[in-house]
User: What shape does this take?
Amino acid sequence: MQVREILEKLKNAEISVDIALETLKDVSIADLGHTKLDLDRTARTGFGEVVFAQGKTPQQLVDIFVELKKQKINALATRVSEDSAKVLAQCFEDIKIDNLSHTAVLYSSEVPQPTGLIAIVTAGTSDMSVAIEAKAVAEFFGNKVECFFDCGVAGLHRLLSNLENIRKANVVIAIAGMEGALASVVAGLVKTPVIAVPTSVGYGANFQGLSALLSMINSCANGVSVVNIDNGYGAAYIASVINRQSK
Amino acid sequence: MQVREILEKLKNAEISVDIALETLKDVSIADLGHTKLDLDRTARTGFGEVVFAQGKTPQQLVDIFVELKKQKINALATRVSEDSAKVLAQCFEDIKIDNLSHTAVLYSSEVPQPTGLIAIVTAGTSDMSVAIEAKAVAEFFGNKVECFFDCGVAGLHRLLSNLENIRKANVVIAIAGMEGALASVVAGLVKTPVIAVPTSVGYGANFQGLSALLSMINSCANGVSVVNIDNGYGAAYIASVINRQSK
Amino acid sequence: MQVREILEKLKNAEISVDIALETLKDVSIADLGHTKLDLDRTARTGFGEVVFAQGKTPQQLVDIFVELKKQKINALATRVSEDSAKVLAQCFEDIKIDNLSHTAVLYSSEVPQPTGLIAIVTAGTSDMSVAIEAKAVAEFFGNKVECFFDCGVAGLHRLLSNLENIRKANVVIAIAGMEGALASVVAGLVKTPVIAVPTSVGYGANFQGLSALLSMINSCANGVSVVNIDNGYGAAYIASVINRQSK
Amino acid sequence: MQVREILEKLKNAEISVDIALETLKDVSIADLGHTKLDLDRTARTGFGEVVFAQGKTPQQLVDIFVELKKQKINALATRVSEDSAKVLAQCFEDIKIDNLSHTAVLYSSEVPQPTGLIAIVTAGTSDMSVAIEAKAVAEFFGNKVECFFDCGVAGLHRLLSNLENIRKANVVIAIAGMEGALASVVAGLVKTPVIAVPTSVGYGANFQGLSALLSMINSCANGVSVVNIDNGYGAAYIASVINRQSK
Amino acid sequence: MQVREILEKLKNAEISVDIALETLKDVSIADLGHTKLDLDRTARTGFGEVVFAQGKTPQQLVDIFVELKKQKINALATRVSEDSAKVLAQCFEDIKIDNLSHTAVLYSSEVPQPTGLIAIVTAGTSDMSVAIEAKAVAEFFGNKVECFFDCGVAGLHRLLSNLENIRKANVVIAIAGMEGALASVVAGLVKTPVIAVPTSVGYGANFQGLSALLSMINSCANGVSVVNIDNGYGAAYIASVINRQSK
Amino acid sequence: MQVREILEKLKNAEISVDIALETLKDVSIADLGHTKLDLDRTARTGFGEVVFAQGKTPQQLVDIFVELKKQKINALATRVSEDSAKVLAQCFEDIKIDNLSHTAVLYSSEVPQPTGLIAIVTAGTSDMSVAIEAKAVAEFFGNKVECFFDCGVAGLHRLLSNLENIRKANVVIAIAGMEGALASVVAGLVKTPVIAVPTSVGYGANFQGLSALLSMINSCANGVSVVNIDNGYGAAYIASVINRQSK
Amino acid sequence: MQVREILEKLKNAEISVDIALETLKDVSIADLGHTKLDLDRTARTGFGEVVFAQGKTPQQLVDIFVELKKQKINALATRVSEDSAKVLAQCFEDIKIDNLSHTAVLYSSEVPQPTGLIAIVTAGTSDMSVAIEAKAVAEFFGNKVECFFDCGVAGLHRLLSNLENIRKANVVIAIAGMEGALASVVAGLVKTPVIAVPTSVGYGANFQGLSALLSMINSCANGVSVVNIDNGYGAAYIASVINRQSK
Amino acid sequence: MQVREILEKLKNAEISVDIALETLKDVSIADLGHTKLDLDRTARTGFGEVVFAQGKTPQQLVDIFVELKKQKINALATRVSEDSAKVLAQCFEDIKIDNLSHTAVLYSSEVPQPTGLIAIVTAGTSDMSVAIEAKAVAEFFGNKVECFFDCGVAGLHRLLSNLENIRKANVVIAIAGMEGALASVVAGLVKTPVIAVPTSVGYGANFQGLSALLSMINSCANGVSVVNIDNGYGAAYIASVINRQSK
Assistant: This one.
């Protein structure tokens, strides 16, 4: 723990009180002007760094990747626009751009070995883009991932016929738009935690995902908790934490 | 058709143009001051008259039942308060008060013979009160009704084990609060129309039934249409119409 | 019933328990990777297969049509974009593209003979696109369809003058945006079920169809149930089911 | 105009600039501590003073009536609670308490002669309480008022048979809960302005009157404008202004 | 009254009952397929016909103008797109296109003489487009109109300095976005009815005009009623009705 | 797995196909009329049975506890009203009523040994009731639980001073009303999953917990997922699943 | 600064690193079990401690007052229920209960001398309760306070005639329900900051204060910022901070 | 005070009552047709004039700048589109266009000397654009401004390490999207007023800034008040007022 280190130095009279106070301020932050990179996070969390690219300029993304590379921290950017993807590809030889999941990965440190299984189940074909983002993130964090697409509750066969494999996972990510019933049905059939991701897929009274969100939050089944609409990244993160600490 | 009758009389010079115009105004309405009873409705629709008791005083209800009895029209009141129930029981010897469904029935004409089956499926124990109202109304309209309580999707067994019987109905009423997923799952399993009733059962982000309503309106399954939150009566009405005209 | 078949085979020792379990999983599903086609649905429901094209790539649509053609299942796609329409037209000689209703139909099996009447009534000229989708779907499912456009309640004459014909239908689809009053007025005038479709037509406090949706869900008239905003397809589906089972 | 008077006095050197400034402040206000009575309003508007009793204590109401009586201004209180009604009746001999409309009237000046007609049309029996408030207010302001209760659009006969009389009015107040379609239908049938009052009558997705409010605001008919939910007073006020200035 | 005419003919045996019934259906409607023109409306209301162009194709607009011209009915289209404007200008020599108010006017009958004054007051510069639509409509209906732009309550001087002229009108249209306070302040200062138009001007928690709508519906001032967000047309219509019947 | 057992018997000709089909229906359900108890759930999930008492009558609760006792299944009821608590205490000698958490526990089988730690952190004193429900449920499921009350972010000291102990848990439940910021701050400080529970604590624009719900769903911190407003039970359930499968 | 003190001691070897770490945890917190009192807050902020009594039991309030008295910290409780008020009065001789503002004050340290002026302006009589809470809080914090009740914009005279006095304040608290226009009008007339408090006063589309909140957040006037609905306390707090640091 | 001047002239018989009345109308307004410029505002408020450019045409902006230059009033336009920026740059030699903050400044009078410090703290990189607008406005008004970007609560270090500098300011502007927790955490750490600006940064259940707005309005911390979503200008205005009057 870095704070302890500073305090130890202070106790040993290696540094003054004023310097201790000053040093405590700058622990683990690289200030790029527009962004304050938390360089200590990888150490704290055990995961590589993920950058939310939406709303950042290509230049800002490059700055961030340069710094993370310098610090030897593995980096993944999500929601990378086509323009940003092009710029990143030009600037970094080893970067892996994935146009389906809109992610970019740059390994500057050891690549984690996949362990433990996360199952990603989607209701419809259109929910696939959220699932693919979740898959990319979970794999970046060192999880095995298996996807089960188009298993919506309107045709239960499609879900039930995959149940045995879904049950092998330590955690299930259930992704659905429209009425979001998938989360409840899946949670009634497995023993593991279910992370539900409402999607904005649908139209009309779906209100950009509100119906699926409310549906999942009100789930009558046990073992469901919910992340933001279309938040494949967030679901993958918490699923990775659960998976990592699973027996 | 009464309008034709009036026109025939006019053509036959039995009445004047002015009288024809005047008569057209008063066709089939009994004006009780507070309420205009549509006496022609039973003839038009083939169903007895249903009175929404909520928001009406006991005296207004008595007035309405007196008039309907005089006109020999079968009458059912829904959402009858305890107070109103007592007053009605005192005023009408033959009235049947049902405290579970909060209904009161007074037959002044022939009792319809039950034909055709309506299935009522509920998600949880707490949705039962809406189901019982729907059952009372559907039976008053001359339908056979079978109820399947507590078949929520969190334990699919409970629904699947009743499926064979549910499929015997001409129309299914699916009643659920919380995330309302029942409607989608049922509709994926039957060939008949599903009338979905969201209920206000639940708490928090259920927002008094909004989550179940949005869920049902956004159903990914075919053959679902929706009535108002807690509207057991409305579901029973349209189900009765469908049942009556079914082969 | 296919499940029974498998069980019979098991009983007759034609297959093992493990094979029975395995086989039960794959009943009636064609897995295209992105989409799990429920090949049994047409057998179960008696209707051709409908594909919701919005949010699917042209390639995914082609995959689906190829598979359905192979399985000799009639197919209709709704909400087909101009791009997808072009690709489909190039890939399938016999496909019928309808640019007004944004649908594509490919018959690979017998074309159903139209029977029974569905009436589609719209409030304004701008609601027509939803009505045309509903008409295309209902005709694909083998219903006779008659449309009554621009019959909004602000000029009752327009509705009343068509009433006799509307009453000939087994079910009425009422389509309206803005305040959605059409559904209540129509339902007060017919004996058949009314399927109400709120549309996003309007502006301001219409909130993309919310006002019409709430209006229809709260209808004071009997016999109304509601589908999603702009959901011409969904209304046509349930109307087709009701029509098919009508005397 | 009082401001002009003060300026005239100033010009004529009857008062100083400082006094003019000071006097301008206190024009027409009686400050009761809790309430600042605008004593000039009756002069300005030509109507008696109306007090919104809800949220005021009986004592505050008495203070207000005492002051208005002193100033010889006719006064009407709306939404008077039972408790307040009792206290007012004890304090003022000539006050007229109306328990149906929850109003109290105290004439301290000339009673206005009723002229011009306002028609009040309601959709259902339960909307009557709002209508009765509107009637009491409109009569206090010196209008002739005729009420047409229970004319909802689910049974058009009830409305059409009263149409001739409704058309005699200079302005129509249309009061409806649930889906609020009455306003649109009425406005399509009359030439005069329609003031629409949504009511909180209904349940479920009515959301305490929101559905009726949105419905009326989005009316497809010409000549409709809307006041707050359950605001019988507000509708009566603007209707009175229109009626007064009508030929 | 046309219905009376038909009845008279029937009485005089000039037509049969069946023909009378049939004729009653087609009274005053020109059915263009996409649109049912209510040709009787001008006779009934005394105003020219207004067409809501948004959501209609140029061809549909041309059809409508051709029919109205044939029927010698003055016509105004609102929310005319640039494309539609061009097509209309090519098809009708005498049509007046106004690019500011997005309207098109074609007089085929007498031009009404402007009488009575309507005042239009706006809060900000950005509300001007709604005001200009209202002005075009009100002038088409034969009213004198005076506009008072940019009189928002943040600088009361701007409103107060125009008050004397505003008070000369028979009715005031108050147009404001953001917090919509203008309606309350204006209504507190005039004796005439105030028609409030919330606009979608603003951003953030304005929610496309919702804040202004709620503000105006909840106005603490007397004599305010409200039309839809950005509905300059609707405000002009009801203001015209009030103005026409004013002394 | 029970289904396999039935299939095995069928294969071994111990039962017929019809009996197999019939038996599959009734697996694990005790039908009490009002409630279908899923007797297999404890076996499937490894947890005792939890009954949501709100909306159930005392008699229904007694029926459920009698059945569960008969089946030797440990039972916990949440949201037990005072009335129900009294009745349960009279009917079951060994039941433990806890008035603070509104729970009732009846052990009919082995009591699970607490293992693994769940930390429950609340923002304010008023969130305590939700926390206590969560604690009762988690302990019933066999978890060690430690509570940290009143650690809201307005005074960071209160949270930071408990951080070391909070970090010892396998999963953290963060409970907060008002602006619900606690979840984000906690998640930024721990490595374990954070289950966020919005509460209805607050007033005004809190809208019964909506503000906290939206806040938590939109958390900028990693590792947060959310359950329903005031849903202490649901948080405890998923936390228990995570804790059980943690190393 | 206490943290510095601990660090100084560490440097001077008066305490060990472990003790330093431990001590940093407990700085300034009195843990009452249900509540963690931030005893350092008064030192940090310069204000006495305020306790939000709603949702706390009388016993919890007594615990808190006992501790604060012991620490010689002046204490104010807001939203004190009648029951709690009685218990507090019994336990503390010197406590001042104010039934109008629902507050209780116990001075255990010096009473602050009022300096600087805060003006509180309300729109209507019914907003007074929020104003009185704000007044009690502001006075407890050592501000001079002047109230201007019932100055709503529907009668501008009432506001304008008090303007000169309102302008003497360093900060204005504007309190209004319904359409909340007061904040905009006041802010257009003063040079100081305006803290706007929406109230839940009103009905219907007021939605418990939402209309006033949105109105104030969207204010077209400069210098307005907003606190929660009915949050008299919060407005008083920030106004006190502004007042204290004003010249 | 100008009004006093006019009254003095009247008293001295230099002008007539009618002229006095007339003159009072035109005090301090330059009417450009589309816009009424409040020329007195700078005198009243002590700040230069700020123009909200969004929704105004380039020509209207030029008109406004010409007039303000003529009146020797410093002017700042916010939300200037690229097109408008180009036109303004062509028309005014000395104008300063800032493409980052989308502002344009034209000094026609003395440039204010920066005094007092405003701290602007943002949660994420994407909130920077709102912060930059606030900075531009605050500097135009003569404040010293220091920005602290990307200090979101998910990594408390980033905020805490800047705390000492943030505390030097007289007022803090806290800008955050998503869950908006920053405002509460900052307010718990400083003694000065915190003006919170919710931003529309985020997605899904953020609902264009609603989540952050509700979060900030419900802040559990003292000393927070809130302006509109993305309203950097508004926050800067009130912060400038507070800063100016701070000791």
Remarks:
- The mean pLDDT of chain F is 90.
- Residues 58-70 of chain F form the longest helix (13 residues).
- Residues 34 and 60 of chain F are 7 Å apart (CA to CA).
- Chain F has eleven helices and eleven strands.
